[in-house]
Amino acid sequence: xxxxxxQRLIRQDLQAHIYSQSLLDNVRNLKSLCNPETKxxxxxxxxxxGHGISETVNIxxxxxxxxxxxxxxxxAIHILDLIKKQSILxxxxxxxxxxxxxxxxxxxxGLHCVLSSLEDLNFISKILVTSKHVLKVHVNIESGMGxxxxxxxxxxxxxxxxDQSPNVxxxxxxxxxxxxxxxxxSYAYEQLEKFNDFLKDNTIASRExxxxxxxxxxxxxxxxxxxxxxVRCGIAMYxxxxxxxxxxxxxxxxxxxxQTPIVKIKKIAAGLPVSYGRSFITERDTTVAIIPIxxxxxxxxxxxxxxxxxxxxxxxxxxxxxCMDQLLIDVTDVPDASVGQMVTVIxxxxxxxxxxxxxxxxxxxxxxxxxxCVQAHVNRIVH
Length: 383
Ligand SMILES: *Cc1c(COP(=O)(O)O)cnc(C)c1O
Description:
The chain has about 375 residues and is an alpha/beta fold. The protein folds into two domains: about 20-240, Alanine racemase (TIM Barrel, Alpha-Beta Barrel); about 255-380, Lyase, Ornithine Decarboxylase, Chain A, domain 1, CATH 2.40.37. Helix content is about 25%, strand content about 25%. It contains eleven helices and 19 strands. The strands form four sheets. An eight-stranded parallel beta barrel has the order 2-3-4-5-6-7-8-9, surrounded by six helices. It has a five-stranded antiparallel sheet with strand order 11-14-17-16-15, with no helix packed on it. A four-stranded mixed sheet has the order 18-10-1-19, with no helix packed on it. The protein is elongated, with a radius of gyration of 24 Å. The two termini are about 35 Å apart. The site of pyridoxal-5'-phosphate (PLP) has 12 residues, from β9.
């Protein structure tokens, strides 16, 4: 199997600043909520939540991180050569769309895979049977998330079969909580109870080398009894709570700041339309600045006429429709605005009018989706 490095387009003028120290501090802060021996799994799926998968791995590879969790084998292979001391967990269950080469790579390179059926166990066993390699697998227990977990009886059966398979070994048992970010944690506790029942019924805790894990960011922060042997943190590592918290028990610092320069400044007289659809009509003689970012870069069209940006500490409104790759801001109240000056599009401050919380609120989504939408061609500049 051959892996091609594609020639990627990078737009140097679209600058996603990635602050290493904030990322490392967030990891340290999250770890401070856990027992010292609890492993830390850094979730880096979705291009590290938009922060750049290679950049993020390069920052974290020397940190006190035990695992990287990715969505697919493709991401796993992409980061394989970057890391030495950490393991990789592929969250998507291994399945029969994998080529024999891919299964072999997983086993050979010690990638941790999720196994979710007897058929898939047979599939990988057949591929590995002639080799000396042993594939490490994790079994996902359905406790109420309702996605790809296995019902406890089937999971027990699967684990028994794994134990009889020479080329497969049980490396982890886990579950995923669907409401840990909510105020009311009663359902999360119910899920944990089901998970604990499974662990007890199958004497999982007494097994050596089986990592038990359940906590995402919200559970890591709010539910210590969900930590088990390892926590899996995504959003909090990047500096945001799953949803804004009023009295957070730790300080998180957003890791990304997205900026782009003003490329043109012009004056528009009062009473004139701005951008597609004439959705904005100037109420006064207006100085507008054009910046070269739009919905093609990950800045939502639904921010049209609603979002704010920052020039220095001055807050300016987005006016008119956000276009595919440009948009307009009203800089009438920033008389010293000039071509080349940087505009903050997504701020690295939870409370900022252009932080991910504020933008998520405008878009009717969760803060995850704001940095994640920042496209791969946006330049990641690591500080
Ligand atoms: C994405 C994901 C996480 C991380 O969730 P956050 O809320 O971002 O911390 C943890 N576990 C699994 C299985 C996931 O898919």
